[in-house]
Amino acid sequence: MTFDPLNSELVRIAKALEPYDVKLIIGGGYGLALKTQLMIDSGKRTQLEIPPARSTEDLDLFLRLEVITDAEKMEAIRDVLEKLNYKPVAEFFQFETGIELSGGQGTIKVDLLAPRPQNVVDREQVKISKPRIRPRNAKNIHAYLTEEAITIEERLTRLTLSHDQDTAEVFLPHPYTFLVLKLFALRDHLDKEKKSAGDRTKQPKAPEHAFDIYRIVAMFTEEEWGEAQELADQYRADEIIMEAREITSGIFGSVGSEGVLAARRHAVDVGFEIENSDLQKVIDDLHELFVS
């Protein structure tokens, strides 16, 4: 079996947090990689062929409302990361540690993220200084305020990971949540790349995020699609979802839109062939969830 350093680190972190009842939600590229492998292993029928997962060296750890409003739980995360030799990079919501790989020294980054609490009582328990959010009494630990993660706790998938003799339980966001997060990420990266046009020192990230959106739609099972429609109806009037509607209309309006073209570029780079009919299917599904 191929050694997966992100898996081993995630098990270490999740296992160390068990005594504090901190249950992690894994987003980002690694969350999608775990979801991809889960769908392949399950053998369940998906809407389209499942594309290969892309590599990443980051762990995006989303924190539940019960964690981001609790100083003791947040400080437990701080102490666990310190004990596991993680050092703050962006104080105090991004951390990194060095690991030994077969080819030499490597680095793993951990990002802590959390949505804005939705009700007044919960909002009074946190302090927000953009881009940071933390419980009012917590010291030297924050999460990155992720406004678009409004459905992060909806319809989670429980996943048990193992490394050596240890096992740990984590959770994956629902595909609908992944789509909302990725739509905002794609929009932001497209805007950044327009501003830095001509700078060849920066590797474009927009194609990766666009292809992730294609991947998420491709991996929908019939059951998940029904759940996504329910979530779309439930949150349709929310400001974040209204913004996601505008993003979808703008960058996934047709096969010639910049989001679709970016997904095609990444598909070519990784040697994955996308049929025009499959692209149209993705566009139609995005519009059904966010625009119709």
Give the secondary structure arrangement, pairings included:
Layout: H1 5-17, E1 25-27, H2 28-42, E2 58-62, H3 65-68, H4 71-83, E3 87-90, E4 94-101, E5 104-114, H5 120-123, E6 126-129, E7 132-135, E8 143-145, E9 157-163, E10 166-172, H6 175-195, H7 206-218, H8 222-235, H9 239-251, H10 258-270, H11 276-290
Parallel strand pairs: 2-5, 5-8
Antiparallel strand pairs: 1-2, 3-4, 4-5, 6-7, 7-8, 9-10
Helix pairs in contact: 6-7, 6-9, 7-10
Give descriptors for this structure.
eight-stranded mixed sheet; 10 strands; two-stranded antiparallel sheet; alpha+beta; 292 residues; globular; 2 domains
Helix/strand/pairing category: alpha+beta
* Share of residues in strands: 15-25%
Instruction: Determine the mean pLDDT.
Output: 94
What's the helical proportion of residues? 40-55%
> How many DSSP H or I helices?
11
Low-pLDDT sequence parts: none
From the spread of the alpha carbons, the general shape counts as: globular
**Over all CA atoms, what is the radius of gyration?**
19 Å
How many domain regions? Answer: 2
Question: Main sheet, how many strands, which sense, barrel?
Answer: 8 strands, mixed
Task: Report the order of strands and helices.
Answer: HEHEHHEEEHEEEEEHHHHHH
Say how many strands there are: 10
